[in-house]
Amino acid sequence: MSEELLEFEDYQDYMDDEEVQTDTRNYQKYLTFRSDGLLFGIDTNNIMEIITNLTPIKLPMVPRFVKGIINLRGQIVPIVDIRLRMGKSEIEYDDKSCIIVLNMDNTELGIIVDTVDQVLDIEEERISRNHTRSEELVNGMISLPDQSVVLILDCEAVING
Fold first, then answer.
1. Strand 149-153 vs strand 38-43: parallel, antiparallel, or unpaired?
2. d(CA 48, CA 6)
3. DSSP assignment string, 35-79
4. Are 114 and 99 in contact (CB under 8 A)?
5. Residue 139's domain is classified under what CATH number?
6. In this predicted structure, what is the pLDDT of residue 112?
7. High-pLDDT (> 90) share of the chain, %
8. C-alpha to C-alpha distance for 46 and 29, rounded to whole angstroms
9. 40 is in which domain, residue-wise?
C-alpha cells in the first residue's frame, strides 16, 4: 500500500513539473476586429473599452480620417476611422460598427471598426513581425488554424501617426 502511495506522489510531482514547463509559453490576449474585409488584432492591454451607438462630434480642419471627438466620462477622446486611416473607402456605419477605445502611455484614442469578432490567446512567438515596415499600421501577423490571417495593429503607430 505504501508503494502505491509513493508512486502516486511521484506521479503528482511529475505532473506538477509538467505544468510548470507548459506554463512558460508567453501567451497574450488579442481582440480581433474586421475592417474593410481584413482581420486585425489588438493587444487587450491597450484596450480601455468598446463603445456602440455613440456618434462623434465633428471637428473642423482635421484630417479626413479623424471623425471627431467623444466625451467619455469627462475625458475628451479623439475618434479615428481605421478604414480611412488605412487609405480605404468610407462606408456607412451600421449596428455592428463600434469604437474601440485604446490607451497607450496615458494617451487615449478611439478607432471606429466595422465589427468586433473575439478575443484570442496568441502565443507571442508565433507572431511573424513585420520588419520591412511596409504596412505603416501593422507590426506583425499570425496565421490561424482555419487559414485566416490576423494582422496585428500597431497601436503606437495609430496613436502617434
1. parallel
2. 50
3. ETTEEEEEEGGGEEEEE-S-PPBP-SSS-TTEEEEEEETTEEEEE
4. no
5. 2.40.50.180
6. 95
7. 50
8. 11
9. 26-160
Residue 13 lies in a domain: no
Say which residues have a Cβ less than 8 Å from residue 123's Cβ, sequence separation at least 6. Answer: 25, 26, 27
Place of cell 467619455: 72
Assign 31 to helix, strand or coil. strand
Question: Cell numbers at residue 6, please?
Answer: 509513493
For residue range 60-71, what is the model confidence (pLDDT) as tens digits?
A: 999 999 999 999
CB atoms within 10 A of CB 42: 23
- Going by C-alpha positions, the residue among 93, 105, 90 that lies closest to residue 56 is 93
How many structural domains compose the chain?
1
Residue 31 belongs to a domain: yes
* pLDDT tens, position by position, 115-124: 999 999 988 8
Distance CA 123, CA 150 (A): 13
Mean pLDDT in residue range 107-113: 94
Assigned domain for 14 exists: no
Pull the grid cell for residue 64: 479626413
pTM above 0.85, yes or no: no
